[in-house]
Structure formats: C-alpha cells, structure tokens
Design a protein that fits this description.
The chain has 602 residues and is mostly helical. 65% of the residues lie in helices and 4% in strands. A five-stranded mixed beta sheet has the order 2-1-3-5-4, sandwiched between helices. 36% of the residues are buried.
Length: 602
C-alpha cells in the first residue's frame, strides 16, 4: 500500500513552485484559442466588406512588397499606407500562401501578444491574479474582438505601444538596456499606424514624472538616444522605400488627419465617453444575451468609476500629511519665546512668520486645484483650438501635476515613499495615455468606434485599479471569490462576443464577378478595367483595376468616366451601380452588389 500512497506535499510543492506561472499559462491558452477562432470565423464568413476596404489596400501593398508588382500610377496612394503589417504579410505571401487569411494570421498574432503584453504591463503594478484579470478584460472587449485578426492595423499598433511602454518602465526601474527594446518598438508602433507616434510624448512624460528630473535626464540620455538610433536602423528599409518614391507616405496622411475638419459628425468631445458601453459589449446579439452583457458592462463601468475614489482619497491623505508635517517643521524653525507655555492646540494652530512660496500649506493645495481646472478647461475646448496645442497643454498639466506630487511626497518622511513615487509615475502614465488619445481623436471631426482601440489598454487599467481597491476596501465575507468569478465570466463573455454578424454577400458577389469575367474573357489580364471599387477587384483579379472614385450620381461624373475610359482604351467597368447609361458600353452581367459593363466593339 505504501507504493500507492499519494504524497500530497509533493503536489503542493509543485503547485507552489509554478503558482505564479499559472495565470500566464491561462492567458496564453485563452488568447491562442480566441485568435484561432477569430481567424476561422473571419476566413469562413468573409468579413471584408464596405467597412473594411482599407484591408484590400493592405493586401495589395503586401503583394507589392512580396515582389508581385500588379499596380501602376493609379495606386500611388499605397505609399500613404502604414507599411509594417503589409510588409509582414508579404513574408507569408513569399511562402506561396497568397490569401486573405495571411493578413488575418499576422494581425491575429499581434492580438495574442497584445494580451500577453497587457499581463506583463499590469504585473508591474498589480499581482498575477489582477494582471490576468486585466489582460483577459482587454482581450474580451467587443471593440477589440471585432478588429482582432481581421487585417486591421489598429491592434498591432496598440500591441507594440503596450510592449514599448512596458520596456521603458523596466529601463527606468531595473536596467537601462531595456531602452534598446522599448524605443525600437515605439518606432515600429508608429510604422504600424501613425497614431502610434503618440507613444513618444508619453515616454518623455514618464521619464520626466520621476523624481530628480535633472539627474534623470543625464542618467538616461545616453541609452535613450542609443535606443532611438537602433529603432531608426530597424525601419531603414521603410524609410528608403519612401525616399525612393519621393514620398514621405503615411506621415503626410497623419498631417492631413490632424489638420482636417468639417464632416457630418462634427466636434463631439464626449463621443467616445458616451459610447463606452458599446465598446464593451456586442450589440448585435439577441435580446437575452444583450441584457446579460449590459449587466456585466454596467458592473465593469461602475468598477472603473470607483477607481477615481481611491485616487481622490490618496491625494487628500498625502496633502493632509504634507500639511501636518510642514506645519510642525515651520513651528520648530520659528519657535516663539513662550514656546514651553503653548498648548498642543495652540501648536497646531500656530502660523509661522515666514514661509517659502512653494512650501506654503495652502499654496500647494491651490496649485493642485489650478492644475486640475486647467486640464478640464483644455479638454472642454478640444476642437476649438489646434490639436497640437491641446495635446501639448494637457501633457504640461500632467507634468506640472507630477512636479507638485513629487515635491509633496519628498517632504513627507515615510519608508514607502519610493514605492509611492513609482506607483504614481505608472498611474500618471496610464491616465496620460488615455487622455492624450482621447483628445487626439475627439479633436478630429471624423469619429469611429475603431479609434477607441488606442485607449483600451489604459481603460483596462482603470478597471483593474478599481477592482483592486474594491477587493481591498470591501468588508465582505466572500470578497476573495470576486476576482476569480469575474475572470471566469470574462472568459465566457469573450466566446459569446464571437457571434458578431458578418457580411459575406459583398465578397461572394465580387468573386462571382471575377469568375464570370475570367470565363467571359480569358484575355482579361491584357485589358484595361475600371471600377468604382477598384481596390476590391485589383485584389481578386491580381491585376490593376483602375479606381474611379467620383460618385456616379450626376451626369457630369458619368461623362467624366466615359471620357477617361475612352482616352485609355478601357474595356470593362465594374460598378456597384446597375442600369447605368454609359454611352458606348453595355451592361453584360449583374448580381446583388456589382454590374459589369463592356465596351461596344463595332
């Protein structure tokens, strides 16, 4: 019997040994499972539709990078695309797998790394359980699942931003050599999508928010510049490509977005805040599921709002300690003649004769209030002044807030001051991350749910921060079970989010047109083809289909189209409009979404 006796101590020791690795293994398994399902669903249901036309451009650019040069001057605007994802997809194309699934796979891998990055980033501030909860929360958001593994460049840029800030924090807290990872990843985040460039002011703010600003600049400068240089080396092929085409590519696109204005959406600074529930849940599901999702979303939002309470309490408590400590210090430095006769009450009420301006008990509190009010005014005036000015002023507000906070902390003798300052710099970075992107996208008149993706990592932080304080503050018998329960619910919640409806009809009809045209004209590759959805048919035909982007609702636009096609000897026009009156062209095929018009040959 002794041979069959179970040694529970042995299993317990194994569990304790790997206990900290279990949350990581859970999120790794979770993220790979979700990614696999997303790739299968997106491939099977053909998600590319009118709302995802950019993906066709990325696929065409991937073909160009892989050496399959199929387009000419009519697609010069491909130089304006962010190049990283098309380049990585082109590597898959070079292996012979030329299919939409390739870009789903590339962007899906970034989704997996995004969840892992969130876990590592949160683990710098919270324990393993809370970090796992936050990582799964980020990966389960409806807005994240909708665009993950879909060919969209947003998730890859966000993932690179997450890892960049993770390594920057490690560089300041542990080893400066991490700058040689963090800064190249920041540059790659920019080349994944131009909005990733906002990570650079966040990095600068984080470094300046640490105590001893002047000494830190000297301390970090060498390795910081070295990291930037290495990052530039990593993107030299992209830079060379743009210079050889006499174009700075997507940098121009970034400038156009920043200075553009006036669309039907208008300036609405609360657009993304109001729509937060829709970024958490999938509104396309059935009523019973929507109700359950709304309940869970409501709980998540309440937890996020609760995160503001401990911040307020912490600042209030620190200011109180600063007030008391400073009062006693000034009293000791300005003792009155009858000091021994003063009661404790008189001591507390004693006002020193001389006070330093910044050390004044009331001055610091007023500066905090002024700083917060300034931030509120800047945010409320977004869209009324230049986006650049708004961003700079907001970052200045965060920086001055950090100066005040660090000044107060350093003047309070406490053994945990160093950890308090570290936590403060981390928290400040997260708030700056959220609001810098919120201001950027709110200042632009074009609004879209997809843009909130850049704000999802700090949003997840707010929820985790609120949850950690909630578990700590609540005097509830089963409070230890709240976090595991919420994590399990999020995992189940994720799989229900994958039921988002797709729109395969457009893709099916486009492929039907392509097959019909190939059968109708085997020599189609040598014919000039136009289309008002040129990017779609360029991809499916694997040849240049000239894009005609003028809406065909007026006679002048139709005449312009006919004139261009006759000048260039155009044979076919594939349109999303049927029954068009094109002089010299006959409609020879039509289905649900597209019609093919052929030139009359006499």
């Amino acid at each position: 019997m002794g041979l069959f006796k179970i040694n529970f101590d042995f299993f317990y020791s194994i569990f304790e040994k790997y206990r900290k690795k279990i949350p990581f293994l859970i999120i790794l398994s979770y993220s790979i499972a979700i990614m696999t399902l997303l790739i299968v669903i997106n491939t099977e249901y053909k998600i590319l539709d009118y709302n995802r036309l950019d993906m066709y451009l990325y696929l065409i650019q991937s073909l160009e990078f892989s050496g399959n040069h199929i387009v000419g001057n009519s697609y010069n605007y491909l130089n304006n695309l962010s190049p990283l994802i098309p380049f990585l997809t082109s590597l898959v194309f070079r292996l012979g797998f030329i299919n939409e699934t390739a870009i789903y796979l590339v962007t899906g891998v970034f989704y997996v790394f995004g969840i892992i990055g969130m876990y590592l980033l949160l683990n710098l501030r919270f324990d393993e359980k809370f970090s796992m909860f936050g990582a799964i929360l980020w990966g389960s958001l409806s807005i994240v699942l909708k665009w993950a593994a879909s060919g969209s460049i947003d998730i890859p840029s966000v993932t690179l931003t997450i890892f960049s800030l993770y390594f920057i924090i490690l560089a300041t807290e542990k080893n400066q050599k991490y700058f040689y990872l963090g800064l190249p990843l920041a540059i790659l985040a920019f080349f994944a999508k131009y909005t990733g460039g906002l990570v650079f002011p966040l990095i600068i703010l984080y470094l300046l928010s640490k105590t001893n600003v002047k000494s830190n600049i000297k301390k970090y400068l060498k390795n910081f510049m070295g990291g930037c240089f290495l990052g530039l080396v990593c993107v030299l092929p992209f830079i060379y490509n743009y210079l050889s085409n006499n174009s700075v590519g997507f940098v121009n696109q970034a400038q156009e977005v920043v200075i553009s204005s006036s669309t039907s959406w208008g300036i609405n600074i609360f657009y993304y805040i109001i729509n937060v529930p829709l970024f958490i849940i999938n509104s396309e599901k059935n009523i019973p599921w929507i109700i359950l999702d709304l309940i869970l979303a409501g709980i998540i939002l309440l937890i996020g709002i609760y995160s503001l309470i401990p911040i307020y309490k912490k600042i209030k408590n620190i200011l109180r300690k600063y007030h008391n400590n400073h009062t006693h210090e000034n009293y000791n430095n300005n003792e009155p003649e009858n000091y021994n006769n003063h009661t404790h009450e008189n001591y507390n009420n004693y006002e020193p004769k001389e006070k330093n301006l910044l050390n004044g008990r009331k001055i610091v509190k007023k500066l905090f209030i002024i700083n917060i009010l300034s931030f509120a005014i800047i945010f409320l005036t977004v869209g009324q002044v230049s986006f650049i000015y708004s961003e700079i002023l907001v970052l200045i507000c965060f920086f001055t807030f950090s100066l005040l906070f660090n000044h107060v902390i350093k003047s309070i003798p406490h053994k945990n001051n160093e950890q308090v300052c570290k936590n403060f710099s981390y928290d400040l970075l997260m708030y700056a991350w959220f609001f810098s992107y919120l201001i950027f996208f709110s200042s632009h008149s074009v609004k879209g749910f997809r843009y909130f993706l850049s704000m999802t990592p700090p949003f997840a932080f707010f929820i985790v921060f609120g949850m950690s304080n909630l578990v700590k503050d609540w005097k509830f018998k089963y409070k230890k079970n709240i976090l595991p329960l919420m994590t399990i619910l999020l995992i189940l919640f994720s799989f229900t989010q994958l039921t988002m409806s797709k729109n395969p009809d457009l893709v099916n009809d486009a492929n039907e047109c392509v097959l019909w045209l190939k059968n109708h004209d085997p020599d189609y590759e040598n014919k000039i083809i136009y289309s008002d959805k040129g990017e779609i048919f360029t991809w499916y035909l694997k040849k240049e289909v000239i894009y005609f982007n003028n809406p065909l609702k007026q006679e002048s636009a139709i005449n312009n189209l006919i004139e261009k096609m006759e000048e260039n000897n155009g044979t076919y026009f594939i349109s999303q409009h049927n029954n068009l009156k094109l002089k010299g062209y006959n409609e020879i095929m039509s289905n649900g979404h597209f019609s093919i018009y052929e030139k009359e040959f006499r």
